[in-house]
Amino acid sequence: MMAFRHVAIIGLGLIGSSVARATRRALPEVRITGHDADAGVRETAARIGLADAICETAGEAVRGADLVMLCVPVGAMAAAAGGIADDLAADVVITDVGGSKESVLAALRGVLPDAVIVPGHPVAGTEYSGPEAGFATLFRGRWCILTPEEASDPAPVARLRAFWEALGANVEIMTPRHHDLVLAVTSHVPHLIAYSIVGTASDLEEVTQSEVIKFSAGGFRDFTRIAASDPTMWRDVFLNNREAVLEILQRLTEDVTMLQRAIRWGDGDTLFDLFTRTRAIRRSIIAQGQDDAAADFGRSHGETGNAASDSMLTR
Amino acid sequence: MMAFRHVAIIGLGLIGSSVARATRRALPEVRITGHDADAGVRETAARIGLADAICETAGEAVRGADLVMLCVPVGAMAAAAGGIADDLAADVVITDVGGSKESVLAALRGVLPDAVIVPGHPVAGTEYSGPEAGFATLFRGRWCILTPEEASDPAPVARLRAFWEALGANVEIMTPRHHDLVLAVTSHVPHLIAYSIVGTASDLEEVTQSEVIKFSAGGFRDFTRIAASDPTMWRDVFLNNREAVLEILQRLTEDVTMLQRAIRWGDGDTLFDLFTRTRAIRRSIIAQGQDDAAADFGRSHGETGNAASDSMLTR
Predict the structure, then answer these.
(1) What is the mean pLDDT of chain A?
(2) ipTM surpassing 0.90, yes or no?
(3) For A29, A288, B89, B207, which has the most beta carbons within 10 A of its beta carbon?
(4) B6-174 matches B178-301 in fold
């Protein structure tokens, strides 16, 4: 199977810059060109040597590329595709890394009706943004979901799968619709709730913001990590995966209401049963390598905290 | 000020065993006795040498102690106090580590009307339970809240403050009522939502549990850590801090409903404004040493993941 010779990355934030770094490390023979709409980001990317060339225009960046990866917020996909339409090589495969897939596929198809498009979504990230936040191992052991159209030629899908696997990811293929529902559960609604709870806490009159920060080790701080993620990216995800997010949110609201009722009526058994069931999920996530077993996320507790946490790894 | 000579720890789980370890390290001259209602826990505690003596009965453990710390779930406080009432020394200070304070104070007062009681709550923990999960540095840099009664003698409060400070904690004093509201925001409601969202995700028909686990790196896994916390302890917290939890939950529900509406109506500005505001809270938590700045909680991303994360520490 033909590998890609030249990858063009449009959008050089956390994900785009991680793709660049991972590609350089895993596939050093591949030419990497990049572009970002923000001049400051281009400057930083050039300074840190993120790609073989950081181009002033997206069109310039994609010229001659056989893989174009759009790493922009999902609300900017159509514009990004429009900016490269005239400069694409005949044999190019277009992909993206957007967090919603039905809307992105529709947006890209609208602008590039005849292109070979294989939408993708690497399920990985951190709470930091920008070209300096990326790192080569971000995708290692994580899953990348590809959502080709039903009538899609299998060859470009296979090439893109091989590319992501070279970067260390596991690849799964599903329909855009199923992707959007799965991600609503595993990512979008958790982010929305995290944003919401951090907002609620900072709006209280009786509890000061300083108290919320001081006593955040009681659990709150775990929510603040994902509530610090890139605002533009996440606004776009919610606006573009509306249906699935609203469906999952509705279910969650019902379940929270049930717990609220259990608390009000002193129904300890309902609480205990749920709290017992949820431990098993955590164990499976650790067993499958999707999280670390270190207690408290391996946070340092003074100078010997990590040593103490290390002893948890075996349980 | 007189330090404590002999600390009796009733309940040898994560917190009790961490108090034992921290005391032995910071105050090696203090005698430590311990008891747990569970024979298996007593056996483990004796085997790992958690205290100078692990006693068969709580009464035996508290005999001669000048500090008794009740480290049992808040629903078991009254029974624990009842089990030691006849064996307490005249000069003893009674404290606890429970996550709700109004109900615990009432429970302890009911059983020990004339004792010197200074309720406490170290805001620290991990998702692991049991005597082997504890470690000496758990409280270092974390806050411990003391909630003495208004008419309380200041001397025992000062001694208990000094004790917690010796264990590495910062101490804050507030009313039981205010504690319960602050913790409802910073700990109880976050835990309830985490439990709930993990439950909701595992109940879906269209998304399999295996998919939820696979793609948990999208954000979901951050919730599973605290949703793996001790079920008995947390059931009791919710049943005993009912009012404050229901109040905060009501506010959160309103705020989530507003976001739900913003998504339904495509109101990107409301989403963007909230998502921007919440980043500042995360920064403050890191600045005040209540969380680590390492990207993605410093999780390992392959062999160089931690090195990459380390570079985040300076931003």
Answers:
(1) 94
(2) yes
(3) B207
(4) no
Q: Which residues contact B217 (CB under 8 A, 6 or more apart)?
A: A123, A124, A125, A142, A143, A290, A291
Domains in chain A: boundaries:
6-174, 178-301
**∠ at Cα B139 (B153, B310), nearest 5°?**
150
Fold of B178-301: 6-phosphogluconate dehydrogenase C-terminal fold (1.10.3660)
- Decide if B31 touches A, using CB distance below 8 A: no
Q: Do A260 and B249 touch (CB under 8 A)?
A: yes
Ramachandran angles phi, psi of B181, nearest 5°: -75, -45
- B144 within 8 A of B170, measured Cβ to Cβ: yes
Interface of B with A in 85-144 (CB under 8 A): 99, 123-128, 132-133, 135-138, 140-143
SS3 B97: coil
Q: How confident is the model at residue B308 (pLDDT cuts 50, 70, 90)?
A: very low
Kindly state the tokens that stand for B263: 């998504």
In the sheet that B143-146 helps form, which strands lie side by side, from edge to edge? B120-122, B143-146, B170-173
- B252-299 per-position pLDDT tens digit: 999 999 999 999 999 999 999 999 999 999 999 999 999 999 999 999
Domain over B6-174 is classified CATH 3.40.50.720: yes
B interface mutation test: which of A146, A256, A269, A288 has the most B CBs within 10 A? Answer: A256
Sign (positive or negative) of CA dihedral B117, B118, B119, B125: negative
B314 and A CB contact within 8 Å: no
Max CA-CA distance within chain B? 67
Q: What is the pLDDT of residues B49-81, one digit of tens each?
A: 999 999 999 999 999 999 999 999 999 999 999
